[in-house]
Fold:
Amino acid sequence: MRVTDWIGVVAITAGLALAPRSASAEPAPGDVVTYDTRETVRALYPEELWPHTVEAYPELELHIVPSEDYRPHEKYVEATARYACQAQLDERGQLVGHVAGEPFPYSEWSQEVTGHACDLRPEDPHFALKLAWNASRRWFGGSTLVQDWGWSFTRDHGEDFWKFAQGTYRRSYFSHRADLLPGPPQISDDTDVLWAEFIDTLTPFDLRGQRTLIFRYRDSQVRKDDAWAYLPQLRRARRLSTGEKSDNAMGSEMTYEDSLLFSGYLWDQEWVARGERDMLVTMDSERVCFPKNVPGWRERELAVPGEREQFLACRFGPYNTLPFIDERWQKRRVIALEQRPQDSRHKFSKKILWYDKETYSPIASLAYDREGEPGRIVWFQLDWSETSDVPGNVGRRILLPIAFMVVNFVDGTANLNQMWTARVEDNSPSELLRHFDVTRLKSGN
Structure:
């Protein structure tokens, strides 16, 4: 064969090697998916979400990155290996015998460290409820999750930005804490608190001073939540009833139940397993968004006062709310659970919740109205603590929620909650009790 023939063969071979993948091929790390190539990711999104997210956004821009390992902290892994086979459900569906760690081994790492001694299997009659308990008792990074947040209120499918609020959120764990082992896994022998939440609104003027305090107890059927909301206009705190957990918070699309995807009572729902699948997920954002782009954010303990322009510095969409532009996406194995409220007063007939299988981190949910029609999406953006530049996060091995998004695509209203300075703090028992003293509702201090 002549030299020129070899050159031709090489050229043809190189051309074949460099030929673009077919339009239906799954994208690879390094690819950027746009609206024109959206069909390449159709198999990587649930059909229920597709028409309201990818299909609804002509400015689509998904940066595909390699899938990573987010195995939880070694303390949580050790607790799973030691205690997982002790966990059970009683006749009420309440979790009993759980000390710390993943209660019912289903993720690959948990089944590995328990030697497959008590694997959770789909044929288990309580499979879905046990998955929900796994999500409820997932690794939270330690004592306290703190988020300085900015919150937008938009109408007209995201075109009308009519209000911007700021504040701080704190959730602390009192019990079932793997990070406290080998000592007692709760802050004191006599506590029956599982976790507590405190939400403080600092701006704007008409919302300033609104505060919410919630206590969740270890056996929430025996002792239901204690919850209060302080309204500065009335200069008093009022108790929130259990039925109000599904009500809208602060005039937004968010409900109290939506905190960290689902913070309602597990036993007050019917749970159905919807299977697992591969899905594109925003697991480790590299953007610098609000309030991290506000000068001095590292030196402030509470919410950093920011301007609307700083809040709008990062692009979002569709609805100027969801993360389908400028963000990193990786293929993950996710679990889908269907939540059906047993309370007929609940505003939704059902929700589908998607969780990351490895970590049970919150991904997204789709809510259906009482007539069974889909109407509202919740979405989370996450940041891996080990690549975080927020002081104190490295070493926690947790995916931190850095943006919480709610869209009512029927009414065209939406809320974007940005909290890129999310962090985990260690607090002593006395500090926890001080943070969640009911007197803080009036003082905020």
